[in-house]
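Hey,
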Amino acid sequence: MLDPTVPDEQVRPQIFKVVPEVQLQEVYDDSGAKARPEDGQTFDLLLNHYSFLRKFLPDLIGALEFSGTSAAQPVVQAIAALKQMDLEDRRTLPKAMLFDFLPADWRTAVEAARASKDPKERRRAKRLWELGLAEQMRKLLRSSDLSVPGSRQHKVWTSYLHTEAAWAERESSWFARHSAHKDAKAYLNVLEERYQTLLQTMLDGWDTNDFA
């Protein structure tokens, strides 16, 4: 399509050589049903995947324990709330429900659906809430704010630190190899000075930096 040497009347035949017309038509027809809403939100599209999420999420949160940093506590509490809703076989969100873990756009969509008098919209609110919870779980597991006791991959971040006993044995040899400040604040100040110096050097040469 971008090759100027291909005459306009040959563009379509060239495309169909790569992607057959029938296949392209199927993709076009399918995309029409899944197009993003005019407001730019993808909630309707995400709801199409809710049944897939329910195939494994109840078993996942039932089989595993989740813990986390202070940043992850709202999600940990929401996981417990979802377990309780599953036990009670609830299809809608209770009045006292946690929303703190949801981003603002998610929270607005969930609360608007829950406030509706339409039973379908109230069920939709719970589904959106669960989808939002699953998304936040994914993000926090990646950042190690959310952890799974016993997991090799999703460990508590402090497990990557030396124990006090191990550090007591290695401290002197470590500082012998790394001539750094033993005082944490002083060490961080040095790092910040280095960062600012390197940043300024980069900015000074930005206009002539062809690589950047």
